Amino acid sequence: MAAIDFVSQLRVLGLEVEEVRSDLIIVPYIIPVGRCRGQSARLGFVGFGDFPQNPPGCLHICPRLLPINQTGGAHPHASVHPSPNFGDEWEYWSRPLSHWAQTERNARSVLAHINHLLDTM
Q1: What is the CATH number of domain 3-119?
Q2: Structural domain boundaries of the chain?
Q3: What's the CA gap between 47 and 16, in Å, rounded?
Q4: Could you tell me which of 68, 60, 57 has the C-alpha nearest to residue 100?
Q5: Among positive and negative, which fits the CA dihedral 93, 94, 98, 101?
């Protein structure tokens, strides 16, 4: 499995996928949980070529939902960075999927992690 499998799994889940480059995709997303529930967003994924051995980095998102704060610390307010791979209106939340080995290692697991982040912001 590789990047094509991640894209395929997202599509099976009913999501549209815009393949910007072979290592960069954008997914339109309606936030299903939390204080932003129902809001339209775009999720970005980059560097997922070794999927499912490793998950893609999380979370590139547009629009910006949190203020930029590049200092370390706890979610939700710390480690929020600009996301230059995607554009000025994007931000990157440094929230690794550290429990990857305990998941099913698929796109559904990645989205569950993202939804947890969105629900707890």
Answers
A1: 3.10.110
A2: 3-119
A3: 19
A4: 57
A5: positive
0.85 exceeded by pTM: yes
What digits encode the pLDDT tens for the residues 63-99? 999 999 999 888 998 999 999 999 999 999 999 899 9
Whose tokens are 């995607």? That residue is 86
Peptide bond connecting 52 to the previous residue in cis, omega within 30 degrees of 0: yes
Instruction: Dig out the tokens for 27 from the structure.
Output: 């997914």
Per DSSP, helices labelled H in 2-106 are: 3-12
Are the beta carbons of 88 and 72 closer than 8 angstroms? no
